[in-house]
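Hi everyone,

Forwarding the result from last night's run.
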Amino acid sequence: MQAMPIRIFLILFILILIFPSSLIAKRIQPPPDIEKESPSPAEIPKPNAGKSESAEVLPGSIAAPERRTALVIGNSAYSSGPLRNPVNDAADMAALLKKLGFTVTLKRNARLQEMDDAVEAFGNRLKRGGVGLFYYAGHGVQINGTNYLLPIGAKINKEADIKYQAVDANKILDEMAAANNGLNIVMLDACRDNPFARSFRSASRGLAIVSSAPSGTFISYSTSPGNVARDGEGRNSPYTAALIKFMQEPGLTISDVLIKVRTKLKKETGQVPWELSSLEGKFYFVPDSATKEVPGKQTQKEDVERPSAPVQPPERSSFEDLKRKMEERREKESQWVKDFEDAKKIENESSNLSEKIQVWQQFMATLPDERTAKGDEIRKYASTRIEKLERLRAMGKTLPKEIRNNGRFIAYDDGTVLDTKTNLMWAAQDNGSSIKDWAGAKSYCDNYRGGEHTDWRMPTIAELGALSDKSKTYRSDCGYNVHLTALIHLTCWWVWSSDSRYLQYYGDEVDPQGVHKYSRALPVRSAE
């Protein structure tokens, strides 16, 4: 019995000797959560994977404040109408976009299936959110108001083939709308002349304006609707070269970039890029140091809280800053006026009501939000013009057909002649006989109803004088030479003006006499 306690004691002693060492061993083992695992083979990036797509950060790249995804396509090697620059344009644009923080898929000389697949994959990537950008350089055509991007190897023998052999530009917009990512940009350097124009019946020059883009979309065209862009003689097209130049400037919104592009191209080439925007905020390719971008929302300045520092009043701008701001505003207003005049000329060149409406809708989209007296005047004109044209379209009205055009004057089949220099519409001929008093001439003009217009009036002496052209001569019905465009027919050489003291003499000078046996009445109205 005494041996039992001794045995128990020995067992306990042995356990005491062993147990502390096991505890110590456990303490020196590293915890599982600090072990560094090796990456699985699937996570190790492959050096040559995905040649067409790159998310690499290039030297000098900016840190984008949001996810940025781009699809860039450049097609040059067409069997009909090959182009020199689109592949270069696409490559250089892709390189810049990578530098600006975009993950870029680049396609060169892509065939139809490759373009379709790329657009679909692009749409799927956009579903992850962020900013999407689609850039295309190559041939593009419009058929009945729909824009098509032409792939390489397209077999197009007739107009009906386009639908099945080209990419409908609306497909890109549909992918963007389905992604619902908030902010998308489309850049189309695709207004080169249609290589198949001779075999098409419904094709128009250049591209059509897109009127159904999803909200949060910015669409830029390399030139104005219905016009053709230049391919360029250097490495890049003028449009893409200007984009690459100004997209890199810090602190410029995308609208500011396109204003600079338009100003440069209009001055150097006469080409006028247009854009359509439904953005709900500002977007910067390169934000300045104080700008924080919020995709799809209004961009705000970063707030830096300094609780301990007293609130300081804003610093007063120097006089030089004020002068600079005023000069910038004057330059912007000058550009608005130039674009406004271009819009009027483009409308005058079109004979289709829908195209005319699209011109003014596109122009309205280019106007900035800031309000000035001149900007409000232009905006009011454009909106009123859209309303009037839409009423005519709703009434089923058709526009007069152009029958002659000498560059400045356009004659229509309704007996009217448009002076594109002054935007005045004239009766194609005078009243046809002598009117011996001013009141009779005024009555004739006020009651004239040519072209179904009711706002005819007497012309001013300055308006009549602007018609005179000594380089043009034809013999009038009364036997005297008239120095005037042949599209406006005068039966003699005197015309009454709204100033009762004067008549316009289309021989050599203004006659100060009030009455003349050869005087005529020539109605005029504003083409607006």
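Confidence is low (pLDDT under 50) at residues 21-59, 198-203, 290-316, 509-515.

Cheers,
N.
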